[in-house]
Every structure is written in structure tokens, then in C-alpha cells.
Records
---
Amino acid sequence: MTHCSKKFPAALFIGSEGLYSPRMRVHLDAEKCQGHNRCYALAPEIFDVDDYGQAVLLIEDDVPSDLEDKARLAASNCPEYAITITD
Amino acid sequence: MTDTLHTPNNDAPTTYVPPGDRPEGHEFWERSPYDAADYGPVSDFATDFDHGSAAYNAKAPEVWKELRESGCPVAHSERYGGMWVPLTHDTVHDVAYDTENFTSRAVVVSTTRPGDLALPAPIGGAPPITSDPPFHNVARRILLPPFAPKQIEPWEDEIRALCHKLLDEMGEIVPGETVIDAAVQYAQNIPVNVIGRMLGFPAEDEDLFREFVHTTLERINDEPEARAAAFERLDNYILGQVQDHIDNPRDDLTGYLLEVEIEGNKLAPEHVSGSILLLLVAGIDTTWSAIGSAIWHLAQHPDDRQRLADDPEVMTFALEEFLRAYAPVTMARMVAKDVDFHGCPMKQDDWVLLPFPAANRDPHMFEDPDTFIIDREQNRHSAFGLGIHRCLGSNLARLELKVAIEEFVARFPHFELAGDVRWSVGQVRGPRVMPIRILETA
């Protein structure tokens, strides 16, 4: 979460691979997705759609910081609450 | 594609019985225990709700607000043989997600409902909108690919050209004087043209399509016999078009439905014609209403017209706000078995209206819900429904709405209402007559 990484120096967080700063991840619940395509319209860098119009998550790893706002926008516009964000 | 489909539930076969072969005493459509003549004007929408009253759609947002504020999350009516109307986002959501207690076998609340010989769920008369699980998923997956975003995006140029043509056909415009009817001369022509072309039906039949939509969705208080006759006319038209496609195969949606297979089997004839019925009826006055309502709003809000002109990027949010604030479609279900729903004693075969437009104005879901905020960033509206029946044509509808607004305001930067607006009757809400005075041309 960005305000965490601002609040605490990155060096405070020590993971298995050494120092890191926590970053945002996006989770898509394919069972909940009904193909409204709001996420694809708002954040095509993060979401694609398949041949049935169902959302496909393109970034399973940490979301680049310049796309974090778009990820939040997509999550907060999904009518089915299929997208969640963890920071 | 077919290998991913589930087999229909063979324990519940659907048998189509042609009208001539139906035994006496069994009806394809049965009358709701209801006679419109027995009921006068609506006295109280909380206990006597009627979406078929001529006054309803013009003032629907006020009706929903008043009912919610009076502590009525679910209205009721004896009309149509018994009907419930959830009015909050939570209650609308809960019906939409509950396919056990609520069936989609009938989705238009009227004087008639499916009788014991009507195509029962799981298929229903217009699959997949009238289908229940598990068959619903089979029917839906057939129609999802042709309406997926990447299949719809290439239609943009044609829709834009159509809008240009309609605007050109309005003839000479004298700013400050000329009055056009934006519903009749513009909005109503866009979706009808597009879906007709997608299905491969004759362009000269557009008036007929609008008539079909009017008789099925607006004339809900007609005598059952009159409704049955209207449906028969529509069925016969579709059967004629299907036969033409069998005789002259071509690459369009009708041709696709005739060729597509479920695990090696072509679709049953009533499945083909039922899906065409859905595409023809559901794809027309819905988007026509959305376009009309958007123009109705812009005619009264010069600041929003200016914002669209100055900041075209805002359309991403404006489009969804038009859909939220002026969602055209109220769906419906029937109660599948007696259930206590949020304290309401619902009985099997009661109707349930699903007013997604009311859910979209619930203050518990949306901040300042009755205000149109052109750049509203958080907007989980349910204009296209919630759950498994999300509107199949939503990508097409959204594209048509966006292009229609863009082209109208590009041609006419300023305009105003020039007289009384007549709103539709029934579950689809939008202007049907809308005089607009053009104040400026581009």
C-alpha cells in the first residue's frame, strides 16, 4: 500500500529474498466476473477480455506504481465486486 | 467452443408443442388473474405499484425515492395477479443473485404469463434471458462470443456513419428556430438499424421491429388474446427470416445460430427462434431509451454539454453516469417457490420486478444518487443487471450510446427541450417523443 511504503522506510520490510517495499497486487475472482467489461475499459494495461468477454488479469505480480490508480479505479467500478486489491 | 459447453440437463427435457397441437385446457400463455379495467390510476405506489401506468416512467425516480424514504424497500401490488418490487440496491441484488427462489421463465410483467405448455425453464421462450441454470449457461455461452468487446469494437465506424446520416437527414437547421424530435428522428433509429444488420434482416423492416417491441414491451395491459396474437405475428416473422437464411445461407448472427453446435448437435429450432426474439426485442428500445435519456439530460444541462465538448476524455465516466442515472431496463422474475424475502411473504408464481434503475439511485450505494455527476469516478451501477443474466448486448449498447452522444453534441453543441416529452410505458424507460430546439450548429 503506498501510504505504508511512505510511512515506513522500505528497509523495514525484510522478506525471504531480502529487502523489498510492499507493492500492490490485483486479484480477479473469475467466478464472480460476469463480463461487464468495466475493468477492461478503465485499465486495459491490467485487464484483457477473452473470447467470451470475461475479464483476464494481465498482471499477476506486483502492479507497477504508475498503474496503481488505474487498478483501484477498476476495482471500485466492478458491479460484481470481482476485483480486490491487496497492498 | 463446443467442448467447453455443459450438456443440458436431460432430466428436465423441454418439449416444444406447436400451437395447433396443444391439447384443450392447456395454454402456452395464461392470463394473470388480472383485468386492467378493474384498477384505476395508482393511488399509492407502495401498495398498488404499476409500471404499466402511463404516469410511471416520467416520474419513476421520484417514486423510488419516496418509497425508500418512507421505509419501503419492497413495494407490492395486487395488479398482474400479484407483484413485488424491490427498490434498494441490496434487495434488487438479492433477487438477481437468487436463481433458486426466482425463475427467469417470464421477464415481462403483463396480463399474461407462461402457462403449463409454455416452454418451461430451463430454455424458456427467449434463451438465455428466459433460461435458468444449468441450461442458462449453455445458451449464454453460445451468444457471448459474437457480443464480446473485440467483436463489437469494429462496429464503431458504421455506427458513426449511421449517426451522421440521421443528422444529415434532419435537413436545414436554423439555430434558435428548428425543432427536431430527437427520439423519433435520431435515438430510435440507431439500435434498430444495427441489430437488424447483425441479424441479417431486411432494412425496410425497421418499422416492423419497432412495432414488435411496442406490442411486446409496452402493451402489457392488453387482453391476453391480443398479446398472444402479437407474439404469433412476431414468431411468424422470425420463422420467415430463419427460413430465408436456411434457403440462402449467409454470414450473420442468424446464420451463426443455425450453424453453431452444442456438443455436436445443432440448436433446436425453438432455441434459434427464441434467441433471435431476444436479440430483436431486447436490443432495440433499450439502447434507444438510453440515447434518448442522455439527450434529454444534456438538453437541460448546458454545463455538461460544455464539459463533453471541452474534455472529450470525460466520456469514459460520463457514459457510465448516463447509464447509472438513466438506466433504461427493469427486468423481472417469477417466484419459483414460496419464500420469505426480506420479510415479504412471496408466493410461487408471484411476479417480481427488478428495477435496476432504482438500485442505481439508492443512497446507500451511491453518494448523492439523484445528481448526475459527469465525472463520477466510483460507479458500480447495475444498468446491465447483476449476476448471471448480465445484459449480453452491453458492449454493443455502450458503444451505440457513446457514439450517438458524441455525434449529436458534435453536430449540435447547444440545444434545449422545446415541448412536452412523452415517456415509454412499461419496463423499459426512455423518451418516445422529445422535441428539441437546436440552439447552435457546428
Note: The helical segments of chain A are 2-7, 38-42, 68-75.
---
Amino acid sequence: MKVTLWGTRGSIASPGPDTVRYGGNTSCVSVEGREGSMLVLDAGTGIRLLGQQLPDNMTTVHLLLTHLHMDHLQGLPFFAPLRRPGVRIHIWGPPSTTRNLRLRVLRYLSPPLFPVSLRELSNNLQFHELPAGPVDIGEFKVKAQLVIHPNPTIGYRIECGNTSAVYLPDHEPALGTHTFPVSKEWTSGYRLAEGADVLIHDAQYTEEEYPFRAGFGHSSIRQAFKFGKLVEAKQFIPFHHDPAHGDVLIDEMIRQAVEEEDPAFEVTPGQEGLVVDLNPQDAEDCKKPES
Amino acid sequence: MSSFQEIEIILARQLSEYLTLAIFIVDPDGNLIFYNEPAEAILGARYEETGPMSASTWASIFQPVDPDGRPLDPDSLPLIIALTTQRPAHSKFWIRSLDRKSRQIEVFAIPLQAQANRFVGAIAMFWEQEA
């Protein structure tokens, strides 16, 4: 299983000289299996780059949306396979008590918010609402679970053989707790993330910022590390960086969190272009992006 | 009893810990999985002391009785009604708390029907009536 980060930023795209290493594109991650199956996690602006690199002969794409906030959806109309004839696109996402997933996606992908409607972009879309039980997609087993974030939001656990990747880009498990972490049983996302080989997790705020943003649905980096320790992740990727945070600040946030939390897991900074191979055929298991 | 809680249950507990209203949370099988500090004062024991309880235990341990002192059928308790019918229910009755005091309480129970057609449990909110 190969995991690639195409967009790591939270809230809004933030290109510029200060965000070159961590990247300015919003959330998008691809997961490739050994047999060629591919899942796309979220459709932030990073999905545009991914779409340009997908092979022309790809006939099916599975896009797994965690939720429908703009930073996770804005890139969808610019995803090249959407315009390719014959490509079937499955869009998976959270349920709602009111409108179905298709209608909720259409709220953005239609005038006046977007000039072209989804129907004009592709007539080969299928929508699926989660969470239900585990779903087999190609060589992957996908598990979804609702987690703490405003509006229905799900996290994903993707298993392939003996390896697992967990994606919780927008998650505030510390919300309302007096001390964090609390017990495993009462922690949002625990079951999903338990023992993950790689955990991609929201680490948007500094400790100083969090009290002013509690309830916005995101974690401070220390909370994210504590969550990673609670679930006993093996590798941890801080993700969904705040748009106001430049590369230097994120480096420092990670350095401090490692120093203060002293985690047993490996910490890999969540930089745009990062590739993590969970079943490496050679010794190099984590290829860092070329700067 | 299931040990890992659904997100709606986690959020309900977190909310209950910030309210002065007494709240009692049960899972879909009726197992008591949490009650908050105001509920501890009425029920006469801390949650940390009692821990989770099965429906048959909590429905009888508090010895609910009607105003004439006759024992109430557990199936008539608002929380049991909310669980079994998945509709809100309300009632006033007497209980004997675990600190052996008799208290009249008013209870309002609601089922927790979650998205994707999931029934995740029920909560009861209750007030102690002035004697």
C-alpha cells in the first residue's frame, strides 16, 4: 500500500513562499494497492495534481470524502478523470438526515457557486453513503466511522493485507474533555485508528491557538500526538496544517511536540508530495518529497 | 455491554458533563453506560462507584414506585419506553436512591436515533421534585 499526500493544508489553499515545503493545496491523499487499485481521499485542491497524473487507461475511480466542507471538495470539478469519457467515478461520503450525498455535493457544484453543474462534467457518477459496515473496494477493505467535527464527518481506515492506513484529517477528539486523552472507549476515532500502521491526523493548531478555536473541529498538535499515542499508531503524519502557518512554524510545532510527548511512533511531517510505502520492496520505506 | 461508544454517545456524555441537569445515558440494549454528577446527587452514588449496569439492574435497583408506593413495572419507566418504542416518554415517580433516601423525580427520556438509520441508545433527563 502506497500513500501519497497531494494536499495537506486545512481550511483554505495557501500557496506562497512560506508554504513551499508543506504545500498550499487542501486535503487530498491517494492510496494505491499492489494490484493497482486506487482510492482517493478527499477532493481538496490537491486532487487537481493527482488527476493530471492518473493513467489514461484508468476506468474506475473511488473518491472517499470525509465531509463536504469546501477545503475537502473544492478541487472536485478540476479532477481530470471527471471529464474523461468512460471513466466511472464512485463518490463515497457521510450520510445526512436531510439531503442525500448527491444533492449535498450539488449544492457546491452548481450555479451560482460553480458555473458548470456536476451533470455536465460527468454522467458516470455513483454516490454511496457511509458509514455502513466495512466495504471491499478492489484489494482494500474500507471502514468508516463518524468522528467529532462539525457537520457529519467520517474518518477512514483502509486495510490491505496486513497493513492499515487511517485518515482523520478533521478531528477534534479533545472537544469537551477536561483532560485529554480520556479512556479508549470514550475517545472519538479510537476504534478506527487503533494500531494503525500509518495515521494521518489533524494537527492544525498550536497549543496557544487551540483554546480560542475549541469547537471548530480541529486538534492542536499535542492533542494529535496524544491521540496517536493512545491508539498506538506506528507512524504518525501531522496533517491539515493551518493556512496561517508557514513551513518554519510547522517544523517548530512538530519538533516541540516530539520533544514534549516523546512518542514511540515514527513522526513523518505531512508535506505535499510525501510518499509512504507501507509494503516496501526495497529498504526505503518512506520517500520524502524532493525539495 | 459494548465498550466502544458511538460518536453521538460520546458527544452526549460530553454535553452532560457541562450541564447542571441530571442525565442518564444507556446503550441500545438498555445498559447504563454513564450518568453525570447532578444525576449522582439524585441517585445517591457516584458513577465511578457503580460503573455500568444492565437494564434489569438499574430498572430495579432504584426501586421505582408510584405515588401510592406501589412498585412500578420496569416497562413503564420513561427510559425503557424510549428504548423499546423509540419515542420520547415522560413520567413522575418515586425512587429509593442508593443512599437510601426516597426522592420524587420527574423524568423525560428520548431515543438517540442517529444518521444512517442507527439507533445508538437513549438518554434520560431528570429533576428531583420538591417534597
Note: The mean pLDDT of chain B is 91.
